[in-house]
Amino acid sequence: MLGWLWALIVGGIIGWIAGMIVGRDIPGGVIGNIIAGFIGGWLGNMLLGSWGPELGGFYLIQAIIGAVILVFVVSLVMRSMRRTR
């Protein structure tokens, strides 16, 4: 139980850091940051492998890079959706 709580906190921080790097907020606030952190961690691990510092089940460098990619792509999609309306 405590492991999941720790993973949620770390995932949220990773999503928040990615939003700060890209300069855009992820939709959904805290929940969106947690989701971006989890998906970014998975994406970064798939692209870059498992190496480097680990915290809360996330390889930090890969997770941040993956979350930055995710936030950037989501922001592009959201911007294009606003233009078509």
Automatic annotation (TrEMBL):
It is found in: Cell membrane. Keywords: Cell membrane, Membrane, Transmembrane, Transmembrane helix. InterPro entries: Transgly_assoc. It is a multi-pass membrane protein. Its main location: membrane. Pfam families: Transgly_assoc. The chain crosses the membrane at residues 6-23, 30-51, 57-78. Belongs to the UPF0410 family. This is GlsB/YeaQ/YmgE family stress response membrane protein. It comes from Paenibacillus wenxiniae.
